[in-house]
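User: For my dataset I need records formatted as: sequence, then structure tokens, nothing else. Please produce one.
Assistant:
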Amino acid sequence: MHTLAVALWGNGNRLSQDIDRSVPTEYLKVLREHYGVDRHQTLENDLAQLRCDDRNTYQDPNLLNLCLRGRMRNKAGQQYCPACLVERCYFRRSWRLSIHPVCTEHHCLLLNRCPHCSSVIDPTKTSPMSKDIGYCAFCWNNLRVDNTVLEFETPKLLLAIQDSVKTGWFEYENLRLRACIFMQGLWRIVYALYGIRSEKLNIWETLCSSFGTNYQPLTKNRPYYNFKDESPEVRLKILSVVDRLLVGWPDTFIAVGKELGLGISHFDPANKGMPYWLDEIVRRDLNKGWYRVNTEEMQSCLLYMQKNQIPITRSGLARELGLDVSKKLSPNEKLLFEEFRRRH
């Protein structure tokens, strides 16, 4: 296999990557030309409609790792439904998706660990002595065990995402857009839930309390990628909260965002841009610094604060104007503010 990879691509290391996730498009093009298959018959389009961008990178938060390839066993791997393996013993394509922590057919959580030895699931390392891939690759015990049935209905958001895998279009509430565009916005919302930009406000804990979800801490380190490493139970909780935020879009989202004081810095701190369906709402209804006051409005506000004996500080001025406290004053505003403080 290494010789074949070198002959095709000049680099045998490509076999150590998930070919449907991290191999560049030009490598798949060479593979297609050598085998003479149609473009739509290759892995190039496998789950492509749910990718965040056109680049096949291992950092895509939606696709779980296909196999370990020497990685440590404490990293996340595949997930599976024991009941599905009993019926037909093969790993479904939807199990590769981190946003599918639930089996909608049997209404149970997927498992991402062996129930016997707690090792990650890696069907590519199954021993040849095993009867099929329904056995753990490390302890050789049967993975088909009884699983707990969920006590609540599967969030409708998960069903909508599952349909979008087949059609390429996401339709839910007042949203109808391409699945890849929706996924870009979904990861922005997940980023805000992790609260990387909120040192004093635990957004995730507050939302769990508001929506009646059992609180469980999240790993606050590069959330796009840590979402894959979370257990199916935690991923289900995150997606359930997002589902509640999208109900009646965008009214619920705006109300919760204003209550928590969310702004564009929580969703797009690096200012790299967001998909239009989320960017419009965040900038128009949540970003407190979207409207910039003029000097007349600022001077009028300063006189009002003086008359009502309100301490003249930058944070107090920002609150009275309805702006973000972290907003920087322009040179003219800063000069006016300093002159007013000196005179009064």
